[in-house]
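Reopening closed ticket. The problem is back. First fold of the pair:
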Amino acid sequence: MNCRFCKTALNNVFIDLGNSPASNSFLTKEALNEPETFYPLKVYTCPECFLVQVDEYKKSDAIFDSGYVYFSSYSTSWLAHARAYVEKMQERFGYTAQSLVIEIASNDGYLLQYFKEKSIPVLGVEPTANTAAAAAEKGVPSVVDFFGVRLAQQLATEGKQADLLLGNNVLAHVPDIVDFIEGMKILLKENGVITMEFPHLMQLVDNNQFDTIYHEHFSYLSFYTVKKIFEAAGLELFDVEELPTHGGSLRIYAKHQEDPTKAISSRVAALIEKEQAAGLQEMAYYSGFQKKAFTIKQQLLQFLLDQKRSGKTVAAYGAAAKGNTLLNYCGVKNDLIDFVVDANPHKQDKWLPASHIPVVNEAQLKKARPDFVLILPWNLKEEITQQLAYIKEWGGQFVTAIPALQFA
């Protein structure tokens, strides 16, 4: 395998999480009796550009198909984040009814709906037809396709270039990151702005977030590396923000290198220096992560086995992709966790891949009254503990496994 950016041969293993199904390949009842396909989940660090990456073991068009089950609008905190973003962008850049906002990986219209409320024209680009259909119900038009140079040229020829081109949690999801960013260069108007949000690699390493590694995430990104990839495409990063979302994310701002209208924020150099001081541009920083993940595996299995011996019950909340990585790496099956609750009806009445834990609605939680609820999407811990505060009425406790086993 060679680096998907600089083509350097990759031999340095960042972490090996074994073999597992794709994290969002939920099972129907009929599929429980059929064999599942497992893919390697081995991650490498490039010694030249420090891009952390997994090979495209499962093709992206097989992952992001019409049966895709992730709908952004089921998280109230994520909707609030999207609304706040829209307010901030309009205040900073002054978008109007003459502007065009294009979102790549627009999902179910969770964000563009707020621009539409302000009478700002929008267009989504979304490869999964079922989420694009949900966006259409919100009045958000979408092109159902994968984004890259080909689609960017097509849209630009049609006069659909963006004043604001954005993508939240998509940059890590593209196998050909070079083609993707070159496409953004084509689709951006002369004085346009790109914003992208993605989980920060430094947070992943420092906070033991190995469960955010799964087959949908082809790349794990530092600011240093993203800056290099954008520069290679003729784009310049002129600002950056550190965000709390997804356990610690970055929001980058980019423009054409030829665009003189936007000053470079001091935050750009400050974050490069912060990463350098932490060691992200040295291979030693990336060693030892396997051991940290194994410690979590030991802690979680010990906890679940102790509860089983004591006759206590454990349920989970949030059938998130990160939860499937955690459970499958740890070898947890449905004999240790009874069920997982999820608010998304597209996941309910299905089973988690490999572990075969059933996904149910919240009514089952109230009926079963488990002793412990393991929160799998730990990044939504505050939202979930507030929503399910009633489990304290029967003495229930919340548990999270990342960055270490903790009781809430």
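Second fold of the pair, where the issue appears:
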Amino acid sequence: MTSRIALLKAVDALLGRLAVPLATLCSPRAQRSEAIGSILLIRPGGIGDAVLLIPAIQAIRKKFPSADITVLAERRNAAAFQLCSEVNRVLLYDRISDFLAVLRTTYDVVIDTEQLHRLSAVVARLTRAPVSIGYGTNQRSRLFTHSIPYSHDTYEIDSFLGMLEPLGIGLHGVPERFLAVPDNALRTAASLLESLAGRPFAALFPGASIPERRWGADRFRQVAERLAAFGIPAVVVGGREDREQGEEITAGGMGLDLAGRTSLSETAAVLQESTLLVSGDSGILHLAVGLGKPTVSLFGPGRGKKWAPRGHHIVINKELPCSPCTTFGTTPPCWNSVQCMRDIAVDEVFNAVMMLLAAESALPSACCKKEWIVVQNNIKR
């Protein structure tokens, strides 16, 4: 997966710059007067971007209830759109047949939601749609009929919603929950969680797309141990790449390890049944947010203003002078041994979890008689 992502970025860096001036020679079709009937949204990238785009898709559906909505995604994030019933079809950016199908199709509106890379903007231009919308972060701005500014200080959901202004869709409140889990995924999750006998549990996601965002399986293990002392099971979620961490966290019966055992929609179903999620800056974090679940999120290299959850969540961010260092999804090598993540203490995370469990009335009655210290320093709501 990592090599595929690196390859796509390399292709964009090489071909994207060359393709922009050529694509400007392709003029959009003449503007039509009839109602908008077909819309293409281009969303390469990871799971988090895909999930946070869904409120904008739902706003489009509300404005244009009969429109045909297609999403051009990547293999790594396409499954996120299974949680959005407003999408009519999902095509793959990195499947040649799907890519060519997009270029052969007529669209009334194309919205390129990629923030920086150029090839998606070239694709938007080549469709020759009469209305094309995208972020004007570099030369890509020349390829759209409507170029939209992009800020690293704007929450990503709001950034995506801001792209809809040319369609007459203004910013509006986002519901606490905006994802819908398929019934078959819920049935699978119920089977996997059967051993918990309906007890409230905390979901843990130790993974991340880059090593610098990982807190460490040993620390997640300590959180699981402390939760077990209070009768709260821990359930580890994640992909195949997270199996080793899942085994380390749950070894000796310390919790239930589901890492690598569920699809994305089944992971969402597990999160829906959980009381809360503990995670680093990740797509799984945004999945829980979209399901309306409280979260404890651990931020270091990532931009909290852009990606940290809003509302009934606890964000732990040490805000060192050198962080955030991630820009447009790229994190440079750390000269400081990722101190921004190392400085997040187990006590800090555990107490944040206990605060949310208490707020959700999910603590066993025996816990009410136990003493535990709530550490509030550096914990931000």
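Update: turned out to be a display glitch only; the data is intact. The two ends are 33 Å apart (CA to CA). The domain at 183-380 is CATH 3.40.50.2000 (Rossmann fold). Please close again.
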